[in-house]
Amino acid sequence: AYLDDYAFLLWGTLELYEATFTARHLETAVRLARDLDRLFRDEAGGGYFFTGTDRDEALLARTKEAYDGALPSGNSMAALGLLRLARMTGDTSWEERARSVFRAFSGTVRSIPSAHTQMLSALDFSLRPPREIVIASADGDAEGAAMAREAARRFQPETVVLWIRPSEAEMLREFSPLAAEHRPVKGTATAYVCENFACRAPVTGRDALARALDDAARRSVPSREGSS
């Protein structure tokens, strides 16, 4: 497989986790990220090569591509996937790997930004204050499921969502130990909205979570005061 295969599969696996909140998908994403880094990383120049070190054929040169055409480049998708993984797991080494991609291609992106739209999307994600929504509930809890749906239905490109249940907690504790420490309050499904790695007071119930997310969305809109 090539870089693009790993990077797109990593992205898809993270999307699958947020669609199902099944911990094994996050485990798969971590494994894919480790393999991507091991096989394709350019330790000297930053970023990732298109071909991996596991290929049998001899190559005159290993190329690195960042151009986002009809499909985004493997480096752009890798950067965004690694950034999301860093926020889901609390492992900042993945964020540093993503930043090495930005450093490697900063010159070409600056000269032709319109040809690197997915890379710019990844950069935008990295520059926004990180936000995590962690929902904790019992297995089969209807209110917990409603809160997860409320978080997932919104367009929140700067946000990652995790749902902690007893059946998933042990695996999540291995790959996202900070998230797995969140608990339901008095046995009631509870949501923690965390920004800049600091969590606001926990809320219970879908309506309370909706209000908290609306408030967070308003705070994230830049002020127009003083603009002409």
Can you walk through the features of this model?
With 228 residues, this protein is an alpha+beta fold. It contains 9 helices and 5 strands. The protein has helices spanning 3-20, 23-40, 74-89, 92-111, 117-127, 142-152, 166-175, 177-180, 206-220, and strands at 131-136, 159-164, 190-195, 198-199, 203-204. Strands 1, 2, 3, 4 and 5 form a 5-stranded mixed sheet that branches. A hairpin with a 2-residue loop joins strand 3 (190-195) and strand 4 (198-199). Helix 3 (74-89) runs antiparallel to helix 4 (92-111). The radius of gyration is 19 Å and the shape is globular. The N and C termini lie far apart (51 Å). 38% of the residues are buried. Mean pLDDT is 90; it is low at 223-228.
Per-chain topology:
Blueprint: H1 3-20, H2 23-40, H3 74-89, H4 92-111, H5 117-127, E1 131-136, H6 142-152, E2 159-164, H7 166-175, H8 177-180, E3 190-195, E4 198-199, E5 203-204, H9 206-220
Short note summarizing the structure:
The chain has 228 residues and is an alpha+beta fold. It has 9 helices and 5 strands, in the order αααααβαβααβββα.
Low-pLDDT segments: 223-228
Shape: globular
Q: Please give the alpha-carbon distance between the first and last residues.
A: 51 Å
Average pLDDT figure: 90
SSE string, helices as H and strands as E: HHHHHEHEHHEEEH
Query: Helical stretch count?
Result: 9
Strand count, sense and closure of the main sheet? Answer: 5 strands, mixed
